[in-house]
Write a structure and sequence with these properties.
Structural class: alpha/beta
Number of strands: 8
Strand order of the largest sheet: 3-2-1-4-7-6-8-5
Number of domains: 1
Distance between the termini: 32 Å
Helix content: 40-55%
Oligomer: single chain
């Protein structure tokens, strides 16, 4: 039985659309859905419970995604296991496509993720320009992070269950697997709602800069070279994107400007070791 774990902190505005999408195209009792409401002060739990017995609701008092994921694991019934952020949208058919390569065979694939679909039509032009470049970067195309969905086999679960609490949990999970152990499934899609404005985008990128620094510190503590497994954008990768599509030059300028400002603003938090302040983008949660 496939188990889907959904950590949700004050996600009343968007949780319903995800659950409705999963339930509209699911196969009877073959999918176990667990929503972990962590530190919620809104109607998240009530909205999840309204979806009926197919959705089990777990409530914990602490607002922590890491704690929510582990609580979800305690209540989940089977494998493969799929971890889904509450603010994305994915169907039951896409979940089945993700779990297909995770069967107990000799494939060696331990973790999968879907292709991203970013609806950029309602976003400001700098946001559109940024993501047109971002989506073409090799690390972004090949990594499992930034999709809001990761599926793992039982063996893959043991790998990520050993990770410490990290802000960039999806990045850490992606880097926990060698390239041959992870797979982006082309037949699966997830809708990831981007920020609407450049300040919203900048808030996300500051969080990304801080969380990436935390992951790299963790790698150093494990005596692992951060350069051996990293999602940072190199100058060569960015130049290769522009050479391939010269029309993206303006987008590359926006990309670099955003990265520079975000890293500059993230310096204080990184220097202080503040890896607990979550800069949440509310614009992507607007219906």
């Amino acid at each position: 039985m496939t188990s889907i774990v959904i950590p949700a902190h004050n996600e009343a505005r968007v949780l319903g659309r995800l659950l409705d999408s999963l339930l509209a195209d699911s196969c009877g009792d073959e999918t176990d859905i667990v929503v972990v409401c962590n530190g919620c002060t809104d109607d998240t739990a009530r909205i999840a419970a309204q979806r009926g017995p197919r959705v089990r609701v777990v409530e914990i008092p602490v607002p922590s995604k890491h704690a929510a994921l582990r609580a979800g694991d305690d209540h989940a019934r089977g494998f493969p296991r799929v971890y889904v952020d509450a603010d994305v949208v994915i169907t039951g058919a896409d979940v089945r496509a993700l779990t297909g390569p995770l069967g107990e065979d000799a494939s060696g694939v331990l973790a999968t993720a879907p292709e991203r679909q970013l609806p950029l039509a309602g976003c400001a032009w700098p946001v559109r320009a940024y993501y047109r470049v971002w989506q073409r970067l090799p690390a972004v195309r090949e990594g499992l992070f930034g999709r809001g969905v990761i599926a793992v086999s039982k063996a893959g679960y043991t790998r990520i269950a050993a990770l410490p609490p990290l802000m960039a949990d999806d990045l850490a999970a992606s880097l926990a697997f060698a390239p041959e152990e992870r797979l982006v499934v082309g037949a699966a899609r997830v809708v990831v709602h981007p920020p609407r404005t450049w300040p919203d985008l900048l808030r996300r990128r500051i969080r990304a800069a801080v969380s990436t620094a935390q992951v790299e510190r963790h790698q150093v503590e494990r005596q692992q070279d951060p350069q051996e497994a990293s999602a940072r954008t190199s100058r060569a990768d960015l130049m290769a994107v522009v050479r391939e599509e010269p029309g993206l030059l303006a987008g590359a300028v926006v990309f670099v400007a955003t990265a520079v400002v975000a890293r500059w603003r993230a310096r204080k938090a990184i220097g202080a070791g503040d890896f607990g302040t979550w800069l949440r983008d509310e614009s992507s949660r607007q219906n």
